[in-house]
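Notes from the 1:1 (GR / supervisor)

We went over the backlog. Supervisor wanted to see one worked example end to end before approving the batch request, so GR pasted a single chain during the call. The sequence is below; no edits were made to it. Supervisor asked that the structure be written out right there so they could see what the output format looks like.
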Amino acid sequence: MMVGSIPLKPDKKWNWLLDAINIAILPPGLNHTREATMKLYQGIGPNSYRVRIFLKEKGIEVPMVEIDFAKGEHRAPEFLKLNSLGQIPVLELDDGTIITESVAICRYFEEVHPEPPLFGSDAVSRAKVEMWNRRAELVVFATIGNVPLHSDALFKDRLTQFPAFAETERRAVPKKWAWLDRELADGRPFLAGEVFSVADITAGVCGWLSEVFGMEIPAELKNVQRWIERVRSRPSWNA
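Structure output shown during the call:
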């Protein structure tokens, strides 16, 4: 399916009806009477990847604008008007509304396209998905991300780098995966239980990022290996 406006050129006498339909039933940002303007500004990186996987799981297509970090496009004045932090992804809705932060973008699409549910389907499952998504971000993602953040030249102008800290975090990465391996020892197929969720997307992208920077998931961690192979076997992984 295509999310965004559907260009129509109706007879003017029907414009009032189309506008009424838009107001009555369409979620904020979606408009069927104007040319499509919804865009996802994204690029090479874990957070954009998370959103692309999420969209593919939902079966949603959104026009994408590639932002090249190596060329400094994220620091261009035009882009900083969209996100003053100079970060991707950024979702621009049809009405010009801007949503940043990957999880916030995913939550928007969860609301306007609830099936299949990727944030849980009841109070308990939503809480568990939130718990595991937070754990994936704060325990695993943050540790892995600190390695390139404090050692790669791409980030040297964004913060004061501490290479020694990068090495400390690099040594900690296997311990984080070992922790997750213990958590998955009960044999459940996905992080939050029986159903694939946004938490699996976040943690799966952690595995991708870890390997990109030469930090392979230890082969002896059979529970993590089993889980991540299940995640990577999904069609959405190639988003």
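Supervisor's comment: The chain has a mean pLDDT of 88.
Batch request approved.
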